[in-house]
Amino acid sequence: MGNAWTSTRLTLEMIKWEHSIFALPFALTGAVLAAGGWPRLPVLGWIVVCMVSARSAAMAFNRLVDARLDAANPRTKMRALPAGKLSAGFVAGFVAVCAGVFLLAAAKLNRLTLELAAPTLAVLLAYSYMKRVTRWSHLVLGLALGIAPSAAWIAVRGSLDPRIAVLSAAVILWVGGFDVLYACQDYEHDRAAGLNSVPQAFGLKAAFWIARAMHAGMIGLLLWLVRLFGLGPLATTGMGAVAALLLYEHSIVSPGNLRRMNAAFFTLNGVISVLFFAFFAADVLLHK
Description:
Layout: H1 2-14, H2 24-35, H3 41-65, H4 67-72, H5 88-107, H6 111-126, H7 137-157, H8 164-183, H9 187-193, H10 198-202, H11 204-228, H12 233-251, H13 261-286
């Protein structure tokens, strides 16, 4: 029992379970927009279970698939799997349990969420292979998180409104942009290992400009979202806060200085997602 608990704790640390906060606020925004206020508590609870379990399955699967590559990368060789602290069998079992919880939670919502659960899980797991296939794997990761607002809308309404796809597209560009920046740390390793990424394909300077373009596109889509849903000054203020934080994120890293990448990637993006939800949800609730 002690070993199982230790392995579970190590797995949660490995997948950075607490970083579910990146996508969860966008899913909650989709739910609030769909309900025109707070969704019913059981629906909200199952949405959260779906989000956390799906992300946990995807992240653990990614670590499992990339264990050999991580062992060869100086930045990642001390992760639990390549370091021998976890067994592949335990992590595979963890993936299976999380996938099962996700499918159960989807079934508790409505018929359409259940029907779409397996294809959604396939997208989340497929990302782990994308760096072997395309330099645009960053956008596939964006899709994996960008599904969340539309999925939450379906969870509340049982159908899909094309307007919420604008928020999904914005999340795709947001995640794709910061993943391009994060991949700059592995530029040399990706070239040596034959892995695909925007930095590997175009170089570090071009990668930074591509990330900036993605984040500019995100802001444009969010402005469109505000207009589509007839949101007011609170949502617009939130947009300004998100734009300011993205500018700051790009100001603290550069092609020649990646030292503060973890601060840009983890801390700031977590703040961005929470602030976005707070302002947008407040706007919806105020005009309910």
